[in-house]
Amino acid sequence: MISRTAELLGGFVAGDFFPSAHRWLNAITGVQGRLEKNFKEMDSLFEREIKARESAGRGGGGADDDTFTTILVNLLREEKSDNEVGLTRDGVKALLLDLLFGGTDAMAEAMVWAMAELARTPRALARAQEEVRRVAAGKRHVDEGDLERLSYLHAVVKEIFRLHPVAALLLPRECQQRCRVAGYDVAAGTRVYINVWSIGRDAGTWDKPEEFRPERFEGSPIDYLGQHFELVPFGSGRRICMGIPMAEAVVELTLANLLHGFDWALPMGVRREEVDMGEVFGIVVRKKEPLVLVATPAKLL
């Protein structure tokens, strides 16, 4: 459902370009029907989860049930008993959608791109793996406390966000007043898109921009926190993505454990240059062809 939602939100919709005729255009092209079907499936899932917790009584599944959904249902019950206008059933469903959809697809795709690039660059894979296993020596898993010592892994993640930003275009902005930018007159009300994919591959800014080279970030102050405009995969300013800390922690921690727990190789007979790195555009930039790798459990202890 998450994948279908992302496809619907990021796909081409003719009605967006012809607002006065969007209703019948969306009906003819079938977009409206797909949207309604997707909405009903998602709504049914949330309704089932909410009812399950309501029928279980306060605390949901038991005294130890402190899941996000149960807390929301308890708050919803309190709002009703106090007879105040506050959290609604639809509001609970909207928050659950944010929890499920926000960042889930983006972080998964970031890790796919990271593993694809590492598999195509044995030198980088070996160095990242050596660092992770040295820092987490004697342990079966890498934990968050280890991340601050994984400087090369952090450089790998930066390079992934440069080459493969999860969103090729940032959320659109609207110019509030007439201005002039780089010799171009921009009228008030103009919708502006920031092409972070193009910025990350600008030959005037990056040396050999098409190459996967995490070393370019070693000793470099450039980061993706919005202060360096050559690397803005999460945006910048007041509208910067608030999920940066979560994305950074999840991607680095998952990637570190993948490298720590397994040895990775391409399938037999597949050469590095044969790995298809084609992209599919949407809300999240996906790898066109699924990534296939051979994972061998590492002997850690």
UniProtKB/TrEMBL annotation:
What InterPro entries has UniProt attached to this entry?
CYP450_71D, Cyt_P450, Cyt_P450_CS, Cyt_P450_E_grp-I, Cyt_P450_sf
PROSITE patterns in the cross-refs:
CYTOCHROME_P450
Instruction: Enumerate the GO terms in the molecular function aspect.
Output: heme binding; iron ion binding; monooxygenase activity; oxidoreductase activity, acting on paired donors, with incorporation or reduction of molecular oxygen
Superkingdom, natural source: Eukaryota
Give yes or no: UniProt keyword Transmembrane helix. Answer: no
Under the heading Gene3D superfamilies, the entry gives: Cytochrome P450 (1.10.630.10)
List positions binding heme: 241
- List keywords of the entry alphabetically: Heme, Iron, Metal-binding, Monooxygenase, Oxidoreductase
Cofactor (UniProt): heme
Family listed: Belongs to the cytochrome P450 family.
Q: What is this protein called?
A: Uncharacterized protein
